[in-house]
Design goal:
Elements lengths: L1 E6 L4 H12 L6 E7 L5 H8 L4 E3 L8 H13 L5 E4 L8 H6 L4 E5 L14 H10 L3 E8 L9 E8 L6 H25 L3 E4 L2 E4 L1
Parallel strand pairs: 1-2, 1-4, 2-3, 4-5
Antiparallel strand pairs: 5-6, 6-7, 8-9
Helix pairs in contact: 1-6, 5-6
């Protein structure tokens, strides 16, 4: 299975995916391209160091959002990928792309959806929300992408305990280590081995 990994920043989830392919946790999979919307994303450097093609498609290079959306779709189309993995990609996915790659785009979100998700909940804001509400358990969710924000079919979830002395930064780190970096590779492996189907908006894993 050929995948495109879309990134915006440091690329820690990308690193987890590359490591999992290298150590055999993810089987039957190769990263065809890493696409960033930010030319300064360190994730591009991680990809290059790993011998993976890395491209920046930035909204700043285009006059309109529509032109950027077309360029993003054309870039991904050109690699003929089977799955698009959003690994910290802070871009609203164009509807045309969602329709073309229905149930072939996955995202990782740093909470247990449907809690602390949707518009405005990204990055540290998620963990700030968790701590402000005083919940005792948070985690991460890997889901397919649909036209809504964090509303697509859920593939995998993993819980992480919130500790009393947590800051948004310490909680973010623990959610990454204990949940995101585990379930994202696992979901890719399941999909690569034809073990995931979507029926009536719900994921079945066989």
């Amino acid at each position: 299975m050929k995948i495109a990994v879309c990134v915006s920043g440091g690329g820690t989830n990308l690193q987890a995916i590359m490591d999992a392919i290298d150590n055999g946790t993810i089987t039957n999979t190769e990263i065809a391209v890493v696409v960033a919307n930010n030319q300064n994303a360190y994730a591009l450097e991680r990809a290059k160091q790993h011998g993976i093609e890395a491209i920046c498609v930035s909204p700043k290079s285009y006059e309109t959002r529509e032109q950027f959306n077309e360029a993003l779709l054309a870039t991904i189309d050109s690699y003929e990928v089977d799955l698009i993995v959003l690994a910290g990609f802070l871009v609203v996915i164009p509807e045309k792309m969602i329709q073309k790659y229905r149930n072939r785009i996955i995202n990782i979100h740093p909470s247990l959806i449907p809690s602390f998700c949707g518009t405005g909940y990204y990055g540290l804001k998620v963990h700030e929300g968790v701590l402000a509400r005083g919940v005792k358990v948070t985690g991460a969710t890997c889901h397919f992408v649909d036209e809504g924000t964090d509303t697509g079919p859920i593939i995998l979830q993993k819980a992480v305990e919130v500790q009393q002395d947590d800051t948004p930064q310490t909680l973010q780190r623990r959610v990454m280590e204990e949940a995101e970096w585990q379930i994202m590779p696992k979901a890719i492996d399941l999909i690569a081995n034809n073990r995931v189907t979507v029926e009536n908006g719900l994921v079945k894993v066989k």
